[in-house]
Amino acid sequence: MNKVEIAQAYEKGGAACLSVLTDEKYFKGSFENLEAIRNAGVKIYYARIKGADAIILIAAVLPDLDIRYMVKICKMLGLAALVEVRQSFFIIIIINFLLLLNC
To answer: Which residues of 75-102 are buried (b: 16+ CB within 10 A; e: fewer)?
Structure first.
């Protein structure tokens, strides 16, 4: 699991805040980790601020957890989330996810 996925799992579990280690020498952290975690959801907020009504999420390049996280943010912001699916494998994942959301 990468750093962003770990952070999203904490958020999904109800965490209100998160500590990201940036010390490289002792903790193998980095400011790049902090930036990646922080930017995961920022683009969606920025799109909404700029007037977007919807965003496209491409299933082939996003992990399942990222899609769930981003759709959750979209629902909170009143944005439509279009999930682009080109392979049947991803259709099953998205259907299961929508069932979990009661969509």
So the answer is: eeeebebebebeeeebeebbeebeeeee
SS3 84: strand
Please give the tally of structural domains in the chain. 1
pTM over 0.85: no
Angle at 94 between CA 56 and CA 49, to 5 degrees: 30
SS3 51: coil
Q: Which two tokens stand for residue 51?
A: 């007037």
Residue 89, domain extent: 3-101
pLDDT tens string 54-69:
888 887 777 777 788 8
